[in-house]
Amino acid sequence: MTSIAFIGLGHMGAPMAANLVKSGVMVKVFDLVPEAMKSLTDVGALAAKSACGAASGADVVITMLPAGKHVRALYLGEGSSDKGLLDVLAAGTLLIDCSTIDAQSAKHVAEVAASKGFEFVDAPVSGGTAGAAAGTLTFICGGSDSGFEQASKVLSHMGANILHAGGPGAGQVAKICNNMLLSVLMIATSESLQMGIDHGLDPKVLSEIMKVSSGGNWTLDKYNPCPDVMESVPSSNGYQGGFMVDLMVKDLGLSQEAALLTNSCTPMGALARSLYVNHARQGNGTRDFSSIFEQFSNIQ
Amino acid sequence: MTSIAFIGLGHMGAPMAANLVKSGVMVKVFDLVPEAMKSLTDVGALAAKSACGAASGADVVITMLPAGKHVRALYLGEGSSDKGLLDVLAAGTLLIDCSTIDAQSAKHVAEVAASKGFEFVDAPVSGGTAGAAAGTLTFICGGSDSGFEQASKVLSHMGANILHAGGPGAGQVAKICNNMLLSVLMIATSESLQMGIDHGLDPKVLSEIMKVSSGGNWTLDKYNPCPDVMESVPSSNGYQGGFMVDLMVKDLGLSQEAALLTNSCTPMGALARSLYVNHARQGNGTRDFSSIFEQFSNIQ
Amino acid sequence: MTSIAFIGLGHMGAPMAANLVKSGVMVKVFDLVPEAMKSLTDVGALAAKSACGAASGADVVITMLPAGKHVRALYLGEGSSDKGLLDVLAAGTLLIDCSTIDAQSAKHVAEVAASKGFEFVDAPVSGGTAGAAAGTLTFICGGSDSGFEQASKVLSHMGANILHAGGPGAGQVAKICNNMLLSVLMIATSESLQMGIDHGLDPKVLSEIMKVSSGGNWTLDKYNPCPDVMESVPSSNGYQGGFMVDLMVKDLGLSQEAALLTNSCTPMGALARSLYVNHARQGNGTRDFSSIFEQFSNIQ
Amino acid sequence: MTSIAFIGLGHMGAPMAANLVKSGVMVKVFDLVPEAMKSLTDVGALAAKSACGAASGADVVITMLPAGKHVRALYLGEGSSDKGLLDVLAAGTLLIDCSTIDAQSAKHVAEVAASKGFEFVDAPVSGGTAGAAAGTLTFICGGSDSGFEQASKVLSHMGANILHAGGPGAGQVAKICNNMLLSVLMIATSESLQMGIDHGLDPKVLSEIMKVSSGGNWTLDKYNPCPDVMESVPSSNGYQGGFMVDLMVKDLGLSQEAALLTNSCTPMGALARSLYVNHARQGNGTRDFSSIFEQFSNIQ
Q1: Domain containing B83 — which CATH number?
Q2: Check: complex ipTM more than 0.90
Q3: Is residue D11 domain-shared with residue D135, that is, in the same domain?
Q4: In principle, which of A2, A156, A201, B176 could form an S-S bond with A196, CB 3.0–4.6 Å?
Q5: Active site annotation includes D250
Q6: How confident is the model at residue C126 (pLDDT cuts 50, 70, 90)?
Q7: Which residues does UniProt assign to the signal peptide (chains A, B, C, D) (predicted)?
Q8: Which of B256, B282, B292 is the best substitution to test chain C (most C C-beta atoms within 10 A)?
């Protein structure tokens, strides 16, 4: 039986780890926040006293951390008083980082890991907290074919789609390409719906029309930003829950960082970042990202 | 048996009228261009010597014209030496305008038509020349319920989806909302794909990933702008055919005109218009609108 | 001695007319708002009972109205139950329209005026209410050389700069080109200053540096948007007074209308319109247009 | 008599060093390119065999390098097989870095320098190659008051304006704030002029009008982007010379990097970067940055 270490039990990590526990494998968890730990031990996970303690002896290590510097600190020991996991773990341990971080950090950790005999897979997720709880996340993976194959088996307990984007770091690149695109879909759908409303159209009817026409996109299918068009989405619930504006701002920052590296031209993505940063700065950081709709609808 | 007048046999009108002929109804056509007329009489349509000649005695009049001023000239006689159709035709004739024009003109003609006892339906199309030829167009209609019901029967010979957006003019509004959104989808998908390519990803793999993720949209499903990702789309055929840049520029102009009328805020749509106008001014006006991809990919 | 009719006594028109009165000419005024009339008769203007009554017998007619439709209604009688001034006044009366309106209307009225023997000069103003009160406005004129020459003498009592942009309508075009540019200067200066502040720079020091460098522009010289950098500007007075956001939105609407007519590509101007419409929709319509600075500075 | 080391003799560095030589001080130079060295020894500079050789014994070291990594390599030895200058030079040597680099690198080198007893001043320049040749550059400095005071004396031989933006790194921040603003001024002025031209206005007349109105900005005063409006500017010389598009792309990259660090919202700057990257990718990288005008004027 496989034993898995899960490090990082935030809004996403906690429900993901809980699904792993439910799948029947032994899960040892660690987080700096005691309450986060308790929520997992309550459902059957074992508690470790440190990240290293969780990882030692595990067959698979899964990490879900906020940013590239945390991932480099944990695996490489960069800027940390502790040794990195790569200096401590037994070679052969499968390493899966589900954090959304910059591709450069992911590539760098993967290279060091490979040089020490580890498979390292970057596997950022898509699908939000609802998908994490339901076990229907999408994982977008970067790494070798064999690494991806091994990781898929583990990730299948937490997600519905496990995709292979390419070599080390490719998971991160594909994730931010996707989320940059998503941010534009959300804004453009919002402004189109509101323009229709301004001209007297019913947003439900207009949504149905665009959904089956060439304007069709994920936000119309699953996540309509206009209140009361769809049930059970954040826009019909005061923009609570879902995927926070602050997280979209983070992903758009990563996308623009990536664009600078390769001198890529992303006018829509750059504008989306400006609009989301502005939205966050107006106090909407913890609301769902579909609340950008209000930037177009609010009339004083 | 219904007799139908079809006026305006351009790139879209001609194949649409041909499908009507194939459906078995009697179709009388008119266009100022003799070659356009011939292509229809070759397949069985009757030729008229004038728009009025085509329309006289028809049960249904369908028009497919370039702009609002042509529609107003034909139906109302505005700025024309001829009488308008509304002053000539028998009340009760069903009038269907499939042109993509400004909503104000559509509403105005519909009002005058109603005052004289006609049903007038604005029914702009979506789907391009390929859809026109295949009879798989989407019609987005504005008008009364009864007008829509009657028009649906006729339009079903030329399209696969007949949608009712609302009252008079609503078809035009919904169409430009949709096409504004589409233009943004196309650009944002292009820049996201190219950013992935710039970072070493395979555009086919990245397209597959985004298609099933939250970046999913019509352009990834049906019309990938990156050459050689999909077969049988303009991007894999030198950006020939499909929906011309100049037509997208026209629709984006209509969308911005509409935004000005209602003081709507459409930052993405406005940027899309700028990028498409720029693209057209660089000599790409007659290429397919997915050729905007080259604005992001070309490296000298 | 010249007698002048002044029609339209709003925030701009009233102080302009008052300066004319002070210059010693006889001024007959009209406005629909009695209080506006009283403010002028208090300083020595004569009151007329109608626009036509003010204009009859005047050597010069000056109009300051909200939009093109009002100008067309007054001069041409379009959509009005009254005859147009052009059908009533003695040929030879000099007509000066200081309104900011669409160039098409200005050109059209000028053409009709010319056909009836009038010189018509479009002379929109720049400089805000402060400039109107101080008599330091800039007039940007369109019309014939002789029309401009005559108009200049009159306008010199109300402004410091009388500029000739070209033939009929050119004043309006130049005005909206200028104001489109101004809106971008204001936003770009705001975001640059705030980025400096975000990095710890003193906005006064940064303003001084950019003012003498290649970032130098009118807003840094005369109208710094960052509070407490300059004295006696709206930003140091809670963004009261000055040039209202709603008026900038109006001018940006005219600029985008003009861009659509000629298929011009104005990405910065289009983005500026979106940002100002958004700002207005958030309840800032009556504040000074430099308050857009808060869109970049506000942190919750 | 002061002896100065000048390291980095590119398009900007070479004429700057030449002006130092002309001022009468002893200048020892180093560059990796022999031709660059020769152009300076021809006018009286002494040649060194290495950067370190130039700097040893100098009272002042001036560097003009392409990017932050080169500055860190030279001063700190980062990623280099040589020791850093800070480990070699006598404490007390005044260090002036005129490169345009990221503010973080500038701050970091300044901190290490301070810890070892050096004054380090970041002094990026503005004014282009023409300003470098004429000795009329603007230096925007970051550093202590005493460091700035000492540096000013040296820089005055190469520039007309020596400005103090704040502490370490502030010169770099102010420079990229300014250049981000400049890029927007250039684009917005271009699109406004072209819109005027599209409506029949004379760009010379329109330029004169906007120059004295609220659209006034540096590009209208010194660097009109429309051909044949001003003499002796790149736009009247096929966009040769001046400040290259590729350098503007570099500065806009630095500005967006800075915006990401502080979560600043810079919609105009972000759009300007997209438009300039696009312009560069179309083969205009080595032309003057005012050639962006052609993006708005070209009609096929």
Answers
A1: 3.40.50.720
A2: yes
A3: yes
A4: A201
A5: no
A6: confident
A7: none
A8: B256
Domain limit, last residue, from A116, A143, A167: A167
Contact C265 B274 (CB under 8 A): yes
Q: Give contacts of D263 with chain A, Cβ < 8 Å.
A: 249, 253, 277, 280-281
pLDDT of residue A182: 98
Question: Quick one: A210 and A163 in the same domain?
Answer: no
> Hey, of B192, B245, B282, which one would you mutate to test binding to chain D, going by the most D CBs within 10 A of its CB?
B282
Rounded to a whole number of angstroms, the distance from the CA of C237 to the nearest CA of chain A is 22
Instruction: Assess whether A133 and A219 both reside in one domain.
Output: no
Kindly state whether residues D120 and D183 are assigned to the same domain. no
Give me the long-range contacts of A16-21 (CB less than 8 A, separation at least 24). Answer: A16/A62, A16/A64, A16/A98, A16/A125, A16/A132, A16/A137, A16/A158, A17/A45, A17/A62, A18/A43, A18/A45, A19/A132, A19/A135, A19/A157, A19/A158, A20/A62, A20/A154, A20/A157, A20/A158, A21/A45
Tell me the nearest-neighbour CA distance from D248 into chain A, angstroms.
12
- C19-30 pLDDT per residue, tens: 999 999 999 999
Spell out, as residue ranges, where chain A has pLDDT lower than 50: 300
pTM more than 0.90: yes
**Each residue of B234-287: pLDDT tens digit?**
999 999 988 899 999 999 999 999 999 999 999 999 999 999 999 999 999 999
What per-residue confidence (pLDDT) applies to A300?
44
Contact B265 A295 (CB under 8 A): yes
**Residue A56 domain boundaries:** 3-167
Backbone angles phi, psi at A128, to 5 degrees: 75, 180
Contacts of D104 in chain A (CB under 8 A): none
Residue C80 has pLDDT above 90, yes or no: no
Q: A254 and A283, same structural domain?
A: yes
Subunits with at least 3 CB pairs below 8 A relative to chain B? A, C, D
* B43 and B154 inside one domain: yes
* pLDDT for res D1: 65
Q: pLDDT value at position D299? A: 55
Q: Do D138 and C184 touch (CB under 8 A)?
A: no
Q: Cβ–Cβ of D265/A256 closer than 8 Å? A: no
Instruction: Answer yes or no: are the C-beta atoms of D231 and D204 closer than 8 Å.
Output: no
pLDDT in tens, C259-271: 999 999 999 999 9
Instruction: Look at residues D140, D167, D194 and tell me which one is the last residue of a structural domain.
Output: D167
- 3-state SS string for D123-178: CCEECHHHHHHHCCEEEEEECCHHHHHHHHHHHCCCEEEEEEEECCCHHHHHHHHH
> Is B298's CB within 8 Å of D285's CB?
no
- Nearest chain B Cα to A273, which residue? B268
- Are A237 and A184 in a shared domain? yes
Asked if B180 and B160 sit in the same domain, the reply is no
In three-state secondary structure terms, B163 is strand
Count of domains for chain B = 2
Which CATH number fits the domain that encloses residue B288? 1.10.1040.10
Give the residue ranges of chain B where pLDDT is below 50.
300
